[in-house]
Amino acid sequence: MKEYTLFAVISVAVAVIADFALRTRILTKPIFWLFMMVIFCFKLAVNGYLTGALIIIYNPRFFLGARLGSIPFEDFLFGFSMVTLTVIFWEYFKKKA
Amino acid sequence: MSKYMIVLALSLCVPLVLSFRLPLGIWRNFRALFASLALILAIFGTWDMLASRMGHWYFNPDGVCGAYIVNLPLEEWLFFIVIPFCCIFTWEALHYLKAKTK
């Protein structure tokens, strides 16, 4: 498997496991998926610009090559795990405080 | 300002202003905010440094200001603070709107 693809899949698995391990359970809440849809729209703008304007350039050796517009498929997994882990940590530390 | 820096500034401006204007509890939970952003910066910054070193992707000198920390542009480091902040803002703002429309 291509390396970026592999890392991106692992990161999503880590985020899902973290949600159970830290007992935040955000993935089971409907509002999380509404949140993800809102973030997705902003992601298309930000990530679309960064990749479309060639500010970040990807090496074809390491990703599948599938893109939505200019955004590599793997970036959606990277984004999903980063955004999900952010909310998991936030909810976890808020509850702990 | 670099193109990448403009993207970050545009992303941050509305959430940052509204985080002070709306009772979202973001700054009240400053320690949780700091801990969350620090962890994301550590995890995804590490991934990014390694991936850049291995040549998974690179940054166009034309789009960044030219300041680097290790092998990543300053903007890329700021990305891991700005975007998670925007996410926490959006998350809390949605809960606020939900409570208000009930």
- Total count of domains of chain B: 1
Query: Which value, in Å, is the CA radius of gyration of chain B?
Result: 16 Å
Distance between the termini of chain A: 41 Å
Order of the strands making up the biggest sheet of chain B: 2-3
Whole-number count of domains of chain A: 1
Structural class determined from secondary elements of chain A: mainly alpha
Question: What is this structure, in a nutshell?
Answer:
By secondary structure, chain A is mainly α. Chain A has three helices and three strands; from the N terminus they run H-H-E-E-E-H. By secondary structure, chain B is mainly alpha-helical.
Written account of the structure:
- The complex is a heterodimer of chains A (97) and B (102).
- With 97 residues, chain A is mainly alpha-helical.
- Chain A has one domain.
- Chain A contains three helices and three strands, in the order H-H-E-E-E-H.
- A two-stranded antiparallel ribbon of chain A has the order 2-3.
- In chain A, helix 1 packs parallel to helix 3 and helix 2 packs across helix 3.
- Chain B has one domain.
- Chain B is 70% helix and 7% strand.
- In chain B, strands 2-3 form a two-stranded antiparallel ribbon.
- Strand 1 of chain A pairs antiparallel with strand 1 of chain B, so a sheet runs across the interface.
